Amino acid sequence: MANVAGIPVYKEMGATPGPGSALDRVRVAIVGAGPVGLALALDLGRRGHPVTVLNRLDFVAHCSKAICFSKRSLDILDRLGIGDAVVEKGVTWNVGKVFRGAGEDPVYRFDMLPVKDQKRPGFVNVQQYYIEEYLLDGCRALPNVDIRWGHAVDAVTPQGDGVELAVTAEGGGYRLQAEWVVACDGARSTVRDRLGLDFEGRVFEDNFLIADIRMKHEMPAERWFWFDPPFNPGRSALMHKQPDDVWRLDFQLGWNIDREVATRPENVETFIRAMLGEGIEFEREWYSVYTFQCRRMARFVHGRVVFAGDAAHLVSPFGARGCNGGFADADNLGWKLDLVLNGNADESLIETYNHEAVATADENILNSTRSTDFLTPKSSASQALRDAVLELAKDHAFARPFVNSGRLSTAVAYADSPLSTPDEDAWDGGVAPGMPVLDAPFGNGWLLDELGDGFVLLACGETHDPLPDMRLVALEPGSLAAQRLGLTAGAAVLVRPDQYVAARWRRPTPAAISAALRRAKGEIQCQH
């Protein structure tokens, strides 16, 4: 496997020549061709917009990054046309088990897809570079998506009606003027740095070792987590299966360590042998050490510069909330930027991205912080509480939900979104405004596939005159889809392009539907 500057290469792309002029003008520039930047580029490209993607490296990296992709992310990737490729390549799992000490029976077992009869599973494990490859395939099929490899941003200058970037590329530098710039350039974001912005939050005093290994040994496709195992006493460990006979092993190391020493093969393999046993053959894929962080920018929107993914927020890996949270950002921003670029919404709609994406980041940071505090107690009281929970969980069901080995990523509700119309009627169940539609069988397929990526009115048992910017989809009264939405005959739900509920009614009127659609597009301010 080739390496460039110490980074293993999955696929060489080759440096893209510069534009051939000192000044280039584009509508949307996305900085960073990781999964979040590519997902946004594919979304905007599929909606017909010209998009330019700048990536500092001229290759796709092959190393330990995201591997766990949640059902919500799979739903998003379905909408982008690559969900089938991801699921076919990936390792599907719904079950997680938590062990303590040397015990062979789990103290806690959970199911990531408690609601069955949905198209996608709770989670799929697949290496990030495969996700990037499938997104790249989608982008390359669109003539309006221009990906420039080996183009590094050096300076960022906000202007009244856009942003100017100074870019270094093969053959020399150039200036790129864009109406909008979306920074998807990761935890060490150059765009964030050049604007003098930073993160707020916590860095946790602990280190974890990632060991990605290749082995043929058969084990269940489940998430296994250990507290205080005999092969890492007093600490924790994790095991996950990936495609291609690759396994992700995690070992808690403690705070004051020498990272270089910790990642030496002979030291890593001591942990691996202790976990797997002496008779298991394996090969090294990638070893690295990481530190927990739960931090974010104060704001994600700065004029015409918008931040998404790790450039905007960071969470600890336990819970798989990093890349999944980034896909939520791209999903939230894409349709809003589409409306603004088409002149169908005011620029202020992008401010609602800040509102909702910050809410998502805060939810992920809250859960990630709680998981980290449980995994790495920093006081005797916290240690005693954790030990008591684990001890009780063996025999008492009430204690098991308190076992926190990483609250795994699920869709975040926008409880107070300015784009939602509050309920006027009393509802018993269903999907409230600000929550994503729950999938269900629909005809010969699935409800989420039917929604597409525009505004949709789901009407149960009655027809309504469709509005110019909205499709009408009829649901059968009593169907599983109607039941999950809480819809009886005559009721309806307005769904946003990101498949979140914007409004719902027991007895909708044309005026109410029109007002809710205008509010969901940012034309009416919602009063709470």
TrEMBL record:
GO MF assignments: FAD binding; oxidoreductase activity, acting on paired donors, with incorporation or reduction of molecular oxygen, NAD(P)H as one donor, and incorporation of one atom of oxygen
UniProt cross-references to Pfam families, sorted A to Z: FAD_binding_3 (PF01494)
Give the source's domain of life in one word. Bacteria
Could you confirm whether the keyword Flavoprotein appears in this record?
yes
Alphabetized Gene3D superfamilies for the sequence: 3.30.70.2450, 3.40.30.120, FAD/NAD(P)-binding domain
| CC cofactor | FAD
Query: Which key words tag this protein in UniProt?
Result: FAD, Flavoprotein
Query: Which parts of the sequence belong to the FAD-binding domain?
Result: 26-364
Question: Signal peptide span per the entry?
Answer: none
Write down the NCBIfam families for this protein, in alphabetical order: PRK08132.1
Q: Can you name this protein?
A: 3-(3-hydroxy-phenyl)propionate hydroxylase
Originating species: Paracoccus thiocyanatus
